[in-house]
Amino acid sequence: MPSRRGPHRYAPRMTSFLEDLGLTRVEQNLLITVAVIIALVLIRWIVSIILRRRIEDAETRYRSQKWVAYLLTTVGFVVIIDLWLGGIDGVLAWLGIVSAGVAIALTDVLRNLAGWLFIITRRPFKVGDRVEIRGVAGDVVDVRAFRFTVLEIRNWVAGDQSTGRLVHIPNGQVFNDALSNFTEGFSLLWDEVHVLVTFESDWELAERLVLEAVVEAAPDPAEGKMANQIREAANDYYIRYKHLDPTTYITVRDSGVEISGRYLVPVRDRRGIDDAIWRGVLAAFATTDAVELAYPTVRTYLPDALRVDRMGG
């Protein structure tokens, strides 16, 4: 008894109907392929509607829709390949013929697919993380088979705030370039504010005022969510910070004494906390005449008093 291949395996009644219409095997396969694609698209659409109605959390809903799309795409690929090539033997034979050409012609495509598998299995980042790769930084908003998308930060905007641009990055870049994840494990950053005062200023008073402004504006690392993040990061990574409280450092520059306030800050709060610190520093300096902000200056030292020589007369 001959084995059923192609459309006979999946829809013998449909095949019989199509044969009665006088269609060739290729025409039958084309019609069934279109029907399978339409059916899978409708199923995905219906499932998406159900997920939107039953899942309120945006991240969970997004992930569920992604996995449904991956599953239906895999099913459709297997069914259509088996339809045209007649089972696993045909698939293997076909792969053996074209694999060499595909490996050369689609090197970047295969690398991007491998990068996608690496991203979804090893999870160097996930949707919602803030990452930087090859000079592009932003929040990951989508991951697909060939590229992932970030909502860009920096560029012409200061303070790690969003530019509003979507940047599409090939998945294969995770193998070629260093990937920085701002939020994985330890979602806190060390940030600094640099205040330059004149040499004539009371730099010790200025240091106290800067530290007070930093302590007032920066979150306390020993309390609340930040403390939990620090403990969790210490369990997963060899992160051993001994001093987490805000502190200051003194450096002498060409135009004055630089006071650097150093503090921990949540990744997405840098701009707001920096603004609050500077407001506190400026308000504190305005209350005293002993401290003045410095700016680039040029000083000339003359070892002798100026003398004016009158020539002639």
3D structure, described in words:
The protein is built from ten helices and eight strands. It has 313 residues and is α+β, with helices and mostly antiparallel strands. The chain has a five-stranded antiparallel β-sheet with strand order 4-3-2-1-5. Strands 6-8-7 form a three-stranded antiparallel β-sheet. Strand 1 and strand 2 (136-143) form a beta hairpin. Helix 3 packs antiparallel against helix 4 and helix 8 (203-217) packs antiparallel against helix 10 (270-285). The longest helix has 30 residues, at 25-54. The model is unreliable at 1-7 (pLDDT under 50).
Give the gist of this structure.
This protein is an alpha+beta fold. Helices cover 49% and strands 19% of the residues.
- Find the structural class using helix and strand composition: alpha+beta
Distance N to C terminus: 132 Å
Per DSSP, the total helix count is 10
Radius of gyration: 32 Å
What profile does the largest beta sheet have?
5 strands, antiparallel
Overall, the morphology is elongated
Question: Which percent range fits the helix content?
Answer: 40-55%
Query: Strand tally, please?
Result: 8
Give, in order, the helices and strands.
Answer: HHHHHHEEEEHEEHHEEH
Average pLDDT, all residues: 82
Unreliable runs = 1-7
Cross-sheet strand order for the largest sheet: 4-3-2-1-5
